[in-house]
Amino acid sequence: MKTRHKTRSHLAWEAARLMAEQGIDSPRQALNKAAARLGCTDKRHLPEAEEVDAALLEYNRLFRPLTQSAELDRQRALALEAMEFLAEFDPHLTGAALDGTAGRHSSITLHVFAEAPEEVMRKLLDAHVPFRETSYRCRLRGENVIFPALSFYVDETPMDLCIFPATAAGRTASASNTEATASVRELRALLGKTAGTD
Hints:
By secondary structure, the chain is an alpha+beta fold. It has helices spanning 2-22, 27-38, 49-63, 65-85, 96-99, 117-126, 168-176, 184-191, and strands at residues 92-94, 108-114, 132-140, 143-154, 157-165. A 5-stranded mixed β-sheet has the order 1-2-5-4-3, sandwiched between helices.
């Protein structure tokens, strides 16, 4: 049992290192690469994504405290700017920029809510923001559901907008596929900003 725990811990740490140094966004992808590097073929030893996130926080705290903190603040400030621009779509920050694991390679993820995806596209087009149409897969009531998404860059940082319907079902889908989100007001508080309102 102790060996299994040690292997899980080692895999989580190696996956965290790969995420920090190679810019891998997905804990699952980093885990698969770490397992291959360490020759671990027993899937029972693979840690959960939360364990990798915890190891990444610890890795950044130990090896990159100043640069990671500055990068996290920068990404959160960019997210706030984008969220204020997209205020009519009730944007919420989620992912690495919110949970503190963001690094220089991380993308900023926002959930937005609209009657139709074209409304969000029009907003970006009117502001001359080039974007790419993608999709966002999530689980809803045990089934895979695909929602539209848009990807673009802000100050050379990738940003992903996941577009959910502006309905109770859309909010349920958003909430059920992320551990935490932050509204504009909550992000301002996180950044220590008090000006303005939601």
